[in-house]
Amino acid sequence: MRLDGFGLFVNDRAVMIRFYRDVLGFEIKEAENASNVYLIKDGTLFLLYGRNDFERLTNRKYAYTEGFNGHAEIALYVDTFEEVDEQYAKVISKGAISIMKPTTEPWGQRTCYIADPEGNLIEIGSFNRPFSR
Length: 133
Description:
The chain has helices spanning 13-23, 51-58, 81-93, and strands at 5-10, 36-41, 44-50, 73-77, 97-104, 110-115, 121-126. The protein has three helices and seven strands. The chain folds into two domains: 5-57, Signal recognition particle alu RNA binding heterodimer, srp9/1 (2-Layer Sandwich), CATH 3.30.720; 73-126, Roll (2,3-Dihydroxybiphenyl 1,2-Dioxygenase, domain 1). The two termini are 19 Å apart. It is 24% helix and 33% strand. It is α/β, with parallel strands linked by helices and 133 residues long. The strands form two sheets. The protein has a four-stranded mixed beta sheet. The chain has a three-stranded mixed beta sheet with strand order 1-3-2. A hairpin with a 2-residue loop joins strand 2 and strand 3.
């Protein structure tokens, strides 16, 4: 098996599409009323699924975390410490919710956390060098 991508189950697709497209700059081409939203971000498949649609598909009910949750995070990388601060300020000005302001951690990473409109955590971080796998 190989990792294909990851997805988020969302209550309000229109709000979430606008956030990931307009605040974080993801290239989402589907309309705000689409059932599922697919995009490729830096070579990774990213999906937004309607929670109700998924429950109908699997014929099950699920309990979802509400409020700010720490079950998972989406990590976004920038090349420099300065870019962490710049991107944090940019997304906050566009409506992202601040969870943790930019901080340089003892392990050498500058990082910050924001939340999307449904409480999913998003990290913006850097080790002050270009990304490499």
